[in-house]
Amino acid sequence: MTTSQTKTDAVAPPLPAEKCHLRLAADAQVAHTEAGRFAVPLDLREGAAERTPLHLILTADEAVDLHAQLGTLLAVKDGDAA
User: Fold this and answer.
1) Which of 24, 32, 39, 65 has the greatest CB tally within 10 Å of its CB?
2) In the predicted model, is pLDDT for residue 51 greater than 90?
3) Across-strand partners of 52?
4) Please, which residues have CB within 8 angstroms of residue 44's CB and are 6 or more apart in sequence?
5) Confidence band (pLDDT; 50, 70, 90) for 20?
6) Could you give all domains of the chain from N- to C-terminal order, each with its CATH number?
7) Residue 26: C-alpha distances to residues 41, 44, 63, 69 (Å)
């Protein structure tokens, strides 16, 4: 985890101008699209510029794969890896 990823109650300082990050939107509520895919709300942050909201669109298969990958990483982080 980098210092920019550390969770605190304080507002994170602006990113340097050359940095560009996608983050889960603060008020993220995953929803279905009209086509039945999953829309995950993200914020694009480019340095000190205002955030740009956008959505990551996933099929059911992609969502399942992402869930499995995140679960594996969380298990490793918690020391549960085999």
Assistant:
1) 39
2) no
3) 44
4) 20, 21, 22, 51, 52, 53, 54
5) confident
6) 15-77 (3.10.450)
7) 9, 12, 20, 22
Pairing status of strand 38-46 against strand 20-24: antiparallel
The model's pLDDT over 4-17, given as tens digits with 9 standing for 90+, comes to 555 555 566 666 66
Reported as half-sphere exposure (CB side, CA atoms, 13 A), residue 52 has a value of: 10
Which H/E stretch holds residue 66?
A: helix 60-77
The answer to whether the beta carbons of residues 37 and 52 sit under 8 Å apart is no
The C-alpha atoms of residue 22 and residue 42 are separated, in whole angstroms, by: 6
pLDDT at 47: 77
Q: Please answer whether residues 10 and 16 qualify as being in contact, where contact means their C-beta atoms are separated by less than 8 angstroms.
A: no
What is the structure's pLDDT at 35?
96
Q: CA-CA distances (angstroms) from residue 51 to 34, 44, 46? A: 25, 6, 7
